[in-house]
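Section 5: illustrative case.
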């Protein structure tokens, strides 16, 4: 018997990077996960993401404290 294993045999493999998980979530389930400061977005797009997040979930903890 070898050393201690933290995952059952056959459940190892490679961990997917976060962008792959987000892409699959969008394509398979229609879920969108977007960081409010994603550099690929323009300012109006980032602002829209921020406003949607606030409408659905309320102000972020950091913003609620400061403003």
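Designed sequence:
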């Amino acid at each position: 018997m070898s050393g201690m294993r933290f995952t059952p045999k056959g459940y190892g493999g490679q961990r997917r990077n976060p962008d792959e998980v987000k892409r699959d979530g969008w394509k398979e389930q229609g879920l969108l996960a977007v960081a409010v400061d994603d550099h690929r977005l323009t300012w109006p797009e980032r602002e829209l993401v921020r406003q949607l997040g606030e409408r659905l979930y309320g102000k972020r903890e950091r913003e609620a404290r400061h403003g």
